[in-house]
Amino acid sequence: MKNSIIIITGITASGKSELCNNLMKKYLNISIINCDSKKIYKEIPIITAQPLKQEKPYKLYGYVSARENYSVGLWLEDLKKEINNVLENSQVPIITGGSGFYISSLIKGLSSIPQISQEVKKNVSEFRKNLSKEEFYKLVLNKDPKIQGKIFMNDSHRLSRALEVITETGKSIFIWQENRQPPLINNFKIYTILPKREDVYRKINSRFITMIKNGAIDEVKNLLGMNLALYLPAMKAHGVPEIIKYLKGKITLNEAIQIAQTNTRHYAKRQYTWFKNQLPNSEVINCIEDFHSSFNLIQPFLLLILYNSLDVLIGSLTCFKYFLLSII
Predict the structure, then answer these.
(1) Which residue of 19, 69, 247, 260 is 20 to 30 Å from 90, comparing CA positions?
(2) Residue 8, phi then psi, degrees to nearest 5
């Protein structure tokens, strides 16, 4: 895909949506396309902080059933179609979201790792839960020595993934990643929002309270009523497992809130590490509350895209003009 693409990413609760909203107010021909693995599910708009339905133009939000075991491969297919539709309508696509795996697959290409069985995932999850960080790291390192110097002890999510892959396939995840499909886009600019941690943690806490007040519990209650398997991605969205425990009487509502807030803060901490290590060449935005500074950082590349789009449109109109003259 030759067209220039803007990607706005960053940790959870960093203000990606606010920045995109402000950009759309200034430039009416922008379309925002989702790059968050949980905001695709239509049954959980509140707990995943999806844009309101009347807020347009937003693409790839709330369009997949929670019953689906949706994957990054399916998302890339949907994304390609959506980008083409946006460009055909002479709009500028801006891809936004905080799912690192989605971002990585988009700009580096999708590795052809086979699907991991639920049995392997369950076993790895048990190891991760029952072992200390050091013990779990040593287990994975012993199984896959190629992780040394590439995945570290505190990155439990990537360690789990590495253990799943080598257990299922017998090959290191890094061997699989050497054989990637061509990336969907090549001409892009990434802006990563990384505010101060204490500001993000404070927003995570307050945002979850707001979600509870706005009906997140009813959303999760409806999920339970669908009798979904717990391994489905929608059932793992931040806050969903904790509210399920509350609805089943295992913990109080206050406990559910506190645990969900803590788990989301831990996730944000892992995201900090991932973005700094995996996207070292991205433009970093430290604070989106200062919109003018954020806008001034993005504006030059955005204006270049708009100019090129206008140039293409003028060229097309000129060709059409000469075509009409030739048949008159």
Answers:
(1) 19
(2) -115, 110
pTM score, whole prediction: 0.83
For residue 317, the model assigns a pLDDT of 42
Q: Which residues lie below 8 Å from residue 119, measured CB to CB, with a gap of 6+?
A: none
Report whether the peptide linkage leading into residue 57 is cis, meaning its omega lies within 30 degrees of zero: yes
Domain positions in the chain are 5-110+182-305, 118-178
At 269-280, the pLDDT tens digits run: 999 989 998 998
pLDDT at 156: 85
CB neighbours of residue 253 within 10 Å: 13
- For the chain, give the secondary structure using H, E and C: CCCCEEEEEECCCCCHHHHHHHHHHHCCCEEEEECCCCCCECCCCCCCCCCCCCCCCEECCCCECCCCCCCHHHHHHHHHHHHHHHHHCCCEEEEECCCHHHHHHHHHCCECCCCCCHHHHHHHHHHHHHCCHHHHHHHHHHHCHHHCCCCCCCCHHHHHHHHHHHHHHCCCHHHHHHCECCCCCCCEEEEEECCCHHHHHHHHHHHHHHHHHCCHHHHHHHHHHCCCCCCCHHHHCCCHHHHHHHHCCCCCHHHHHHHHHHHHHHHHHHHHHHHHHHCCCCEEECCCCCHHHHHHHHHHHHHHHHHHHHHHHHHHHHHHHHHHHHHC
d(CA 43, CA 127): 31
CATH number of 5-110+182-305: 3.40.50.300
Which tens digits make up the pLDDT trace of 71-97?
Answer: 999 999 999 999 999 999 888 899 999
Which residues fall within 8 angstroms of residue 210, CB to CB, at 6 or more apart?
none
Domain 118-178 falls under CATH 1.10.20.140: yes
